[in-house]
Amino acid sequence: MGTDLARPRSFKGRQRPVDDDWDDVDLHCVGNAHRGSRQYPSRSAQTRGRASQGQQVEGERASYRRRWSHPAPTTEVVLAPASSLDPVGLQEKSWRFNDYFWLASSLALSPPAYMLGVLGSHLGLTWKWSVLASFLSALLAAGLAALTMHAPSKYGIPFCVSARTSFGIFGAKFFSLLHLGLAFPWTAWLLSIATEGLREGITRFRPSVATWNPLPPSFLPPGQSSLLSLLCLASSFLLLVSLHAFGKIQALRSLAPVLSTLLLAFYVGLGIWAYRLLGLDTGLHAYDAKVLPASLPPSPPFPLYTSLPLAVLLGLGAWTTPLLLGWGDLSRWCSLRPSPRHALLVVFPLLSPLTTFLGCFLTGTVARGWSTVVFTPTALLSFLSPPYMALLGGIGLWVATLHTAVVGYLLPGAHALSNVLGPRLLANTGVAGGCLGFGAFLFVLLAPSTVLTSRDAHGGSAFVGGSLLSGLVGGALVGVLLSDIFWEWRCLDSLPCGGRPSPPAQGDTEQEQGPRARSPPLNF
């Protein structure tokens, strides 16, 4: 923007426009710009002109300095892109229905699905109502996850990035912080379950290894009872970090069919063993007769109209992190948009209640035959015979549980941690997952083992309380996201054209497009 300096009336020369980017040399030469002109003003007019010109020059110079020393504030927030939060391109969208089928199967066959029915006894539910609550929670979680995965599957962005539509850029950091608070304890709990499975398998195969303890008990951490448990925990941590930090998401996708088959074979083998031991009716009757009274608190149980919604909320809390908040990270690589939804809505509500039913049956069988109540599938390894079956089952359950921990909890937790800290501090999900896994390792190392393994009533109560809290927090967050989807649909219905805005045809001008060209773009 140019500015003309004022000249005295007696000065008849041409005025020189002055640019904004002038320097001091230009400012001093302005007064001498017209010395070579043919007509010269009088001496008094020259004096007045120089004074007026000097005032104008000083004013322009002060304005220039103020403008560059105090730039105008801007409201635009510019964030450097993080490598782990980049959108997935079309060339990388190669996942099909079978990939999401096996991933959903590995989540539905995981220890949380097994324990939902068993820990439903803490609420006073029989095995029938526990299976029904597991089905309702799996159906509700799969339906909500299918609604919230629209933006990640369409645009190829992580779920924490798509949450900026509802919460804003800085509000999404608080959303990711809550997401991280849900993912961390579940990662630690699954790490402890995998460690227990490996330890039980080795102990059942070689009992002398469990008693070998060269270290004095005072040197062991509070959460570990022997050197074997400490070594198993270290091995579980190394495998967890290797699966996440050193193995890409493509490797996790390739491992899903094998590990899901191992879990399914393990559960089928346990079911055949329990059926040949006592029969189906005896095991289910023993669950209602022995497990239910042993799990209830001294106070009377909840009525059915209260305990059933609490059990559904318990299951929703178990699936909040992997499905409602983490499945969007897995749906980024889908080549067909409906494929993650179909896999969830078909596989998850079917396999999750079957796993819960098997958990009730096996728990009742052990309670009838050995007069003890076990809550985790890893605790069943100590009752298996021959011993090599317990070792194979422990190794398979160890690897499959850690794979579930990475896919369902550690991977979305790493994305949330990267989004919270920002790209300047932590832009790689491999490093973020390593930090999160190390924190889970320290938590399992120092926390009491009864709280983590859920082998007794105290651990079961802690699991139930944590799941209910996860369901409340995750349900509130998903409710905000679903309200955003609802208002998005209302915005689409209220468009002047009566539907979704279509891209303009080639060659159309803004006047020919009418109000369609001037409608604001939809961010979701």
From TrEMBL:
Main localization, broad class: membrane
Membrane-spanning ranges: 100-123, 129-149, 170-191, 227-246, 258-278, 308-330, 342-367, 387-413, 425-447, 459-482
Alphabetical UniProt keywords: Membrane, Transmembrane, Transmembrane helix
GO molecular function: nucleobase transmembrane transporter activity
Cellular localisation: Membrane
Membrane topology: Multi-pass membrane protein
Biased composition (Polar residues): 39-56
Sequence segments annotated as region (Disordered): 1-69, 500-524
Pfam families cross-referenced by the UniProt entry: Transp_cyt_pur
Gene Ontology CC: plasma membrane
This protein's record includes keyword Methyltransferase: no
Family label: Belongs to the purine-cytosine permease (2.A.39) family.
Identification of the protein by name: Ncs1 nucleoside transporter family
Organism: Nannochloropsis gaditana
